């Protein structure tokens, strides 16, 4: 894929494609979490592993993140759902009619909200997926004032009022699971200190079939060290079983 991709706000989204563009049977789309981008080590490692296994992959940065256009202070889960739709639209324009979306952390919440609205997403993987958005805001940024403070004291990542209001409005994604009827893999490390592993256990219990939960022992939020191989082994095995 070499086309330029723009979201509904006419902001260009930065992406990297891995694979054989002549094969349009399935496209795996990888979305990152809050303050992340498409070039996080876990995203690159996952994409490269999937490519070696014969899958086409597109990893991208949500608007306002990485090299994508847009204002970071306008980044919200709701806006990122629209960004993902723009990516899927572009994939369809390239001949892809089947998509597997893999979202990490806040990107996992994006997937839960997007999948029920888009039948082109036929498979989904949540990696350390955020479920309780309001609780996350309070736990991670409760000592900051929206519009004045910063995420994890990073001056490049201001905590905006738009972000905070969206997190509170969504509250959690559990109510969307009843509308998800596609094969869904939920992966989480039990050493995650950003999004508690119990959130994946909780959303798994609320989800309908077909679903699968994999808890990775000793693995942190970003799949560092041998966590990357543990995660990619699970994802590749699951994707092979569900790709036909």
Secondary-structure blueprint of this entry?
Layout: E1 15-18, E2 27-31, H1 41-52, E3 56-60, H2 77-93, E4 99-104, H3 106-114, E5 121-127, H4 133-141, H5 161-170, E6 184-189, H6 197-206, E7 211-216, H7 227-242
Parallel strand pairs: 2-3, 2-4, 4-5, 5-6, 6-7
Antiparallel strand pairs: 1-3
Helix pairs in contact: 1-7, 2-3, 4-5
Summarize the structure.
The protein has 244 residues and is α/β, with parallel strands linked by helices. The protein has 7 helices and 7 strands, in the order ββαβαβαβααβαβα. Strands 1-3-2-4-5-6-7 form a 7-stranded mixed beta sheet, sandwiched between helices.
Report on this structure.
By secondary structure, the protein is of the alpha/beta class. It has a single domain, classed as 3-Layer(aba) Sandwich (Rossmann fold), CATH 3.40.50. The protein is about 35% helix and about 15% strand. The protein has helices at about 40-50, 75-95, 105-115, 135-140, 160-170, 195-205, 225-240, and strands at about 15-20, 25-30, 55-60, 100-105, 120-125, 185-190, 210-215. It has a seven-stranded mixed sheet, sandwiched between helices. Helix 3 links the parallel strand 4 (about 100-105) and strand 5 (about 120-125). Helix 1 crosses helix 7 and helix 4 crosses helix 5 (about 160-170). It is globular, with a radius of gyration of 17 Å. The two termini are about 20 Å apart. The mean pLDDT is about 95.
